[in-house]
Amino acid sequence: MSIQTLEDLYTQQLQALFCGETQLCELVTALREAAGHKDLDKIFGDWIEQGLQRRHMLEQILGELGQEVDGTTADPIVSIREASLALIESIPEPDMRDAGLIAAAQRVAHYREAGYRALAPFAVFMKRKHDQHFIENSARESREAGEQLSQLATRTMHRAAAASYQMAG
User: Fold this and answer.
1) Please, is 92 exposed, middle or buried when counting C-beta atoms within 10 Å of its C-beta (0-12, 13-18, 19+)?
2) Residue 156: CB partners within 8 Å, gap ≥ 6?
3) Domains and CATH numbers, the chain
4) Is 73 left (phi over 0), alpha (psi -120 to 50) or beta?
5) What is the distance between the terminal CA atoms of the chain, rounded to a whole angstrom?
6) How buried is 125 (Cβ within 10 angstroms: 0-12 exposed, 13-18 middle, 19+ buried)?
7) What are the φ/ψ torsions at residue 128 (nearest 5 degrees)?
8) Rounded-to-integer distance, Cα 153 and Cα 49, Å
9) Are 55 and 22 in contact (CB under 8 A)?
10) Secondary structure of residue 68 in the 3-state scheme
11) pTM for this structure?
């Protein structure tokens, strides 16, 4: 896609977010399958549901702009996915693995939040109020998800530390 106008750039950024949401849903599904903690399973389940809703909304916005989803891939998500899958396979202890999954999920939350925050000024400038509301809500939800994970990480790391001391001792 040749970018000639602000709308072209906006569309390209929407396409990148759609791709990112698609890849994040796939990644979080894998993380969810490896999670041992019920709270982590719930958080990941909520993320998948939100991601599917966001994909639908992004597809709708692209349609309003006369665009179809192009299906490109986001390299940062591919890297996070590969690192996360390797992590899952390398940590047998459930609480320690959950601590690693939380770290991977926090990277995802920050990447997602940054994508939406970067797009918000475009919607404002282009006077796309409906898009702006969706984008700002998505950024806020991503930030809140990261905060939720931070709280869970503290509890999980205490259990992981206890397990690693037992394994070492």
Assistant:
1) exposed
2) 37, 40, 95, 98, 99, 102
3) 6-168 (1.20.1260.10)
4) beta
5) 58
6) exposed
7) -105, 75
8) 22
9) yes
10) coil
11) 0.83
Mean predicted lDDT score pLDDT of the chain: 86
Q: From CA 51, how far away is CA 22, in angstroms rounded? A: 7
Q: What is the pLDDT of residue 153?
A: 81
| Residue 14: pLDDT over 80 | yes
Q: What is the pLDDT of residue 97?
A: 84
What the block records as the tokens of 73 is: 């891939």
User: DSSP state, 54?
Assistant: H
pLDDT in tens, 52-108: 999 999 999 999 999 988 877 667 777 888 888 888 888 888 888 888 888 888 888
Of residues 105, 101, 103, the one with CA closest to residue 142: 105
